Amino acid sequence: MTDYASTRFAQAYPAPLTGQFRTLPEDFIVDEQMEIALSGTGEHLWLQVRKTGANTDWVAGQLARCAGIPAKEVGYAGLKDRHAITTQWFSLQLPGMADPDFSSLPPEIEILQQQRHDKKLRRGALAANRFILTLRECSGDFVEAQTICQQIAQHGIPNYYGAQRFGHNFGNLKKAASWFKGESKPKQRNQRSLYLSAARSWIFNHILSERVRQGNWNQRLPGDVFTFSDGNSWFADDASPALEQRLAVQDIHPTGALWGRGELATQAQTGELEAEQAALFPIFCAGLEKQGLKQERRALRIKVGEIGFEVVDNSTLRLAFELPPGAYATVLLDQLGTFLVPPLTRGG
Fold first, then answer.
1. Which parts of 37-141 fold into alpha helices (H)?
2. Strand duo 28-33 + 17-21: pairing
3. pLDDT for 249-307, tens place per residue?
4. Which residues make Cβ contacts (< 8 Å) with residue 205, sequence separation at least 6?
5. Which residues form the active site (predicted)?
């Protein structure tokens, strides 16, 4: 059996700190940044919700209960961490129905505002996530850590999938392997999606880790395929001098394979690297292809921008930054050091 826990993905920065993260829910604050103008009319009621110590699916279920509708009629842009204070939007489809009474919602859920709109909130439909992280019991070189934050603003960070993608104790990966080997099958549709995503993300992380190890994760490599910062399209290397400048200012980024059917989009040195890394996981590759997934691409780099760095006291730091959808705050922390999550807050 593969020992997933022993895997250490390469980091792009020295990571000089140690400490604790998510000691309290208020140590992890996340606010969705939306750029959707709500119409004020329509059969969808949009709610901005602040949740504390609760996961997104549970909140969606509570909203559906109050509205008397199936949970599938509740939309949200993405899953947010349970052990945090998060502000995010939900939509409820209420055709011909009045706004529900939410007075019976549990105290973990607070509705900040609500407005009608003519469309459902879809997955990924947000501009960014804004994070405020408090790190406790910190030791190490704070000055070097602040310098790394400045370097991250200039060069970005590797766009790894976070550990939560793979499940508690890598359970999603283990179940994906069991499924692909014919030993078991997912019982629910959402489990199928989780296992496929975990296997695909594991291959991607290894491709990215090898490029970080080689020092070319944010540089041009022969045969590369690039994407724009919005991640909505990609294009092959055209060997133009302007491409290097666009890479330097983080207007475009190299991409890595999200495994599936079909040929790799990359060629030459990049194509060889991706094929070699994917070949380390033949069960995952074959399973993803059998389930009908097609080759896609994901940026190898995240553009972070300025990071607020506050020394609260001699063992406490506070960071503030913004990440695009699909990026993980914990991946940024990995560039700064090793931060343990106390046992009482682990899971969820």
1. 56-67
2. unpaired
3. 999 999 999 999 999 999 999 999 999 999 999 999 999 999 999 999 999 999 998 99
4. 9, 160, 161
5. 81 (nucleophile)
How many H helices and E strands in the chain? 8, 16
Domains of the chain, earliest start first: 17-26+133-149+308-345 (no CATH), 36-117 (3.30.2350.20), 166-302 (3.30.2340.10)
Which positions ≥6 away from 229 have C-beta within 8 Å? Answer: 250, 251, 252, 253, 303, 324
- Alpha-helix residue ranges (DSSP H) falling in 215-254: 241-248
pLDDT above 80 for 347: no
87 alpha-carbon distance from chain centroid: 16
CB contact at 8 A, 181 and 283:
yes
222, 228 contact by CB (below 8 A): no
Closest listed residue to residue 116, CA positions, set 60, 50, 47: 47
Q: What is the CA radius of gyration of the chain?
A: 21
Q: Are strands 225-228 and 252-258 parallel, antiparallel or unpaired?
A: antiparallel
User: pTM (2 decimals)?
Assistant: 0.90
